[in-house]
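Fold this complex.
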Amino acid sequence: MAFELPSLPYAADALEPHIDTRTMEIHHGKHHSGYTAKLNAAIADTDLANKGIEDILGTLDMSNAAVRNNGGGYYNHCLFWEVMGPDAGEMSSGLSAAIDAAFGSFEEFKDAFSNAAATQFGSGWAWLCVHADGSLEVCATANQDNPLMPGVSCEGKPILGLDVWEHAYYLNYQNRRPDYITAFFNVVNWSEVSKRYANR
Ligand code: MN3
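Structure:
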């Protein structure tokens, strides 16, 4: 069963001015679409073809570059679109308490996450991950790796992710990755992140 490119859960211009329409259109319609097609080609006629994406990534042979790069790219962008939105929603008390416990305060969490995103050298992602016991961790991964994959530096299930590949921000922000990171916090959908925290 082939994976399908999901529709954006909002209009391409819904995150303006923080993330511009053209970037959203190319990022979703070209980049995410490309990862999806290449993932399908990589798993066709293999024993991965009937597995779910979390299962594929969680048991991945990391030397399988095609599935690592494109399966990661498929999953990471599916999460990315969903944890953003034109409405910030509301953070659950459970997630809020877990953030305070792990980082001290929301502002300190924001600093830790922003720092992980800013200091990821080259292409990659910053993540907020939840462990089975509900505790939280911030980390970053290179390229299209993510915390579901075996042996990746951080563990747990990602509930918030930020794409820091240049294709995610270059049209609007050029080399100003820190400005893009600051802008991202204006479009996080905390209801969705809270739901993912609860469904860990
Ligand atoms: Mn991307």
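Residues 21-43 form the longest helix (23 residues).
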